# Entry
Amino acid sequence: MNIHEYQAKRLLKDFGVPVPRGYAAQTSREVETAISHLSDDEKIVVKAQIHAGGRGKGTFVDGYKGGVKVVDGRDAALEAAGHMLGNTLVTKQTGPNGRKVQTLYFTEACEIAHEYYLAIVLDRETAQSVIIASTEGGMDIEDVAEKTPEKIVRVPISPTMGLRHHHCRRVAFELGFEGDQVKQFARILTGLYKLYWEKNAMLVEINPLITTPTGDIIALDAKISFDGNSIFQHPDIQQLRDLNEEDPKEVEASKHNLSYIALDGNIACLVNGAGLAMATMDIIKSLGGEPANFLDVGGGANEDQVTAAFKIILSDPNVEGILVNIFGGIMKCDVIARGIVAAAKNVDIKVPLVVRLEGTNVEAGKQILKESGVALTPADSLVHAAEIITKQVSEQKG
Ligand code: ADP
Ligand code: MG
# Structure
């Protein structure tokens, strides 16, 4: 689960990481109040809040440039806000459709001596947390990693030992900090790690972390991703969820306890079990098709869940065919078959539907489908099922 920059900065502040003073706003009235808290004699930064980076270099769909603006005083801030609020911002990370800006963040501007990059991320390969830091902050860290990998410092942290002072000193020295800045940096990294660890984050990223001309170190941007599987342990974090930023189909799926992830293809999959769902997607791809989603209805799905699953799948305008692949273990094939029949009655399935059932009560399941009269093609094996659906979908296209 991701949160907005302004929320991430509140957390950083709670954990002792210095951030500029700032105020969030969602309506024009809130915009005025937020701006009134900042000085008219100084520069103000107006920042579009979306769950995507690259805002500074982004462009709004109406041609207005920049989702992060450093402006002179309140009137200019108000004007920038007028362009941004409700407008759609396209950045390198949003995809071509961009994201509608529904929240703005107004902060004090800082004078920047240098921009650094600092993050802690969960590295699944080594099963450790890793500090990633660079003197090349403010830009795409992926670009730095590609063009000048020697400018990226990676320091693993053992999960049993946690962050130690020597980690902080090592990264501080690699970034070239001296004297009091080493102490400041150690406090920042310690706070960042504490936040990362206690709140079960998978990524905390400050880009840029800056030094001011007087030597202070401050976080100017913040991104935090939390582990969705542990979010129930953190009601304070759960509250920060912004459903506007999530795919409505995924939001609906989570209400029905379905694991659904929208993808770009046209063949929808409805499968029980995450591993089987991935195998199903792999086979579709290997036959030249493109999966429209990942969907695991789980081991004990009921009729209502299967109906909800069909509704979600069909609400995706890209879907041109559906492949149902069920292996009845705990799940019984007749239950799924009844779910499919109920769904077909409830939702108008206009695209080809291929159903492969195997396992417990498979004969009963097949019988139910056959007697129901629902328009579908049965298949006996996964490969067979995938071949039929990819063929039917490509033939439709002509
Ligand atoms: P994004 O990464 O989405 O482009 P950032 O918050 O990193 O957004 O802002 C982009 C750039 O704008 C930063 O690299 C920094 O140079 C500048 N900037 C952001 N916030 C401030 C601020 N409070 N004061 C001065 N400059 C800022
Ligand atoms: Mg940034």
The radius of gyration is 25 Å. The first strand starts at residue 22 and ends at 25. The chain is about 35% helix and 25% strand.
